[in-house]
Amino acid sequence: MKQNVVIVGLGLIGGSFAKAFRKYTDCTVIGMDCCRETAEAALAAGAIEKIGTPDDLPNADFVFLCLYPKICEQWLREHLKYLNRNCIVTDTCGIKSWLCPRMKKLSEEGGFTFIGSHPMAGREKSGFGQSDADLFLGASYILVPCGAPRAAVEALTELVLPLGFSGITETTPEEHDHIIAFTSQVPHVLACSYVMSPQCPKHKGFSAGSYRDVSRVANINEVMWTELFLENRDALVEELDTLTLHITEIRDAIAANDAEQLRALLRRGRLVKEGLGE
What we know:
Distance between the termini: 42 Å
Order of helices and strands: EHEHEEHEHEEHEHHHHH
CATH topology of the largest domain: Rossmann fold
Strand order of the largest sheet: 3-2-1-4-5-6-7-8
Number of strands: 8
Structural class: alpha/beta
Helix content: 40-55%
Number of helices: 10
Largest sheet: 8 strands, mixed
């Protein structure tokens, strides 16, 4: 049976979901966005079949909230009365420990099912204009079930896998946030810190792949990432402390002209990377 999918927030991720559902499935795709121009652009591009209103929500089988964490909670609170009991609501946020308990509580009030999710895909720039139907090809899709029935988890899995995801990873809010602090948030902190060097404006003619690799994600949406960093501050600070410790160890070996210690530290890093088979 044809599924009705409502996507709320048509930026990079929401717009890419809309385009992917249209390209790879026969789902009916309805889009909602607080910016009328964005919604109209999505409609004109064929990413959605209709600009949605609250009246479309009672018929939704799935609702994807592609919004900042606090706005996800606010939107769901304001639209509880429109969602049917068979609806599955999911988010796409990069933090879960703060968000999931709040969304779970609202779902219990409304009688529908909430499942946290996080597509591990993105780009440096945001907005519908950057969205791509193939953004998720080969990406991992993280599910945070939050106590949802197994049938609902399987239904969401079956819905998203045709979009090109390489597989599903299930986890808890706590594990998600600790690992994401390392894999996603620390690199953004590192990149922003790196390009603040007074040497950065002089890099042209002196840089190649290393500069590009480290600096790439410094092109950041500071509003979104400030919210994500602060709502995951405990896990992120722990990872930053670990990074600072290791940078200090290498820095001190260089300052002391201690070649033996420096080789040992660099060897540790190399062996860790090689051990991962990457």
